[in-house]
Design goal:
GMP Synthetase, Chain A, domain 3, Non-ribosomal Peptide Synthetase Peptidyl Carrier Protein, Chain A, alpha+beta, single chain
Length: 232
């Protein structure tokens, strides 16, 4: 039994409703459990049938699940996770193993196709990024460029790993892989309409080295070189 906001709810009841919520959800392919937070928070794990993989829109499934859970139990899920068929642990007889699923979720071992919480956070970061880009266009100073790059790094890596940006910190130390670094520079070039050389960025490597390169390009673009392509 789940206890959420002082209300008793049977896991089996929620799971039964979820299995019929959408044709793409696997039969007997949804489980629920709670995690501690500011009170007990409901997490929903839903398997998607193989024939629907790559065809569904995660946001639509999230909306259906929220609506069904809210309408039937007056509960708002904390997080909804979509996974492929076979990823929810079961007994040999096919019974869902909620506690094992919860353990895999908490340890990060669950194979996640889409997460409502992660997509919400990414949407927020993307929205913030638009404002940061506007700030750079108005005033291309170090502080604005740094705030924009940190936002972009968080979007690419999922977090800043609790690190405080300092002058010598490298992208690797901030959890940025080589592939993510290329994506980062490509995003910078597209967002700011500049041509920052990937090779030079890799050579600099440090966060503030890249900030200085971007600041230099934007300063030159705003000077007598307007109309000319600047590559650094």
């Amino acid at each position: 039994m789940l206890v959420i906001n002082g209300k008793n709810v049977y896991s089996e009841d929620v799971e039964e409703v979820l299995s019929d919520a959408d044709p793409s959800i696997e039969t007997n392919g949804a489980t629920v459990f709670t995690i501690d937070g500011a009170g007990e928070k409901l997490v929903v794990i839903s398997e998607i049938k193989r024939k629907y993989l790559g065809k569904i829109v995660p946001q639509n499934i999230f909306a259906v699940i929220r609506r069904v859970v809210s309408a039937n139990f007056s509960i708002e899920p904390h997080e909804i996770i979509i996974t492929a068929t076979g990823n929810i642990p079961r007994t040999t007889s096919g019974k869902l193993q909620r506690s094992r699923c919860r353990s895999k979720y908490l340890s990060g071992e669950l194979n996640i196709l889409a997460s409502s919480l992660q997509m919400s956070q990414e949407s927020k970061i993307t929205s913030e990024r638009a404002g940061l880009i506007s700030a750079i266009m108005r005033d291309p100073i170090t502080e604005n460029i740094q705030a924009y790059l940190l936002n972009l790094i968080e979007l690419k890596t999922g977090s800043l790993a609790g690190l405080i940006a300092c002058e010598k910190i490298t992208l690797t130390e901030m959890g940025v892989s080589s592939i993510q670094a290329v994506e980062l520079i490509n995003s910078v070039n597209k967002d700011l309409n500049i041509n920052l050389d990937v090779g030079r960025a890799f050579y600099e490597d440090s966060l503030f080295g890249i900030i200085n390169m971007i600041e230099t390009i934007l300063w030159l673009r705003g000077s007598s070189t307007i109309g000319k392509e600047i590559v650094i």
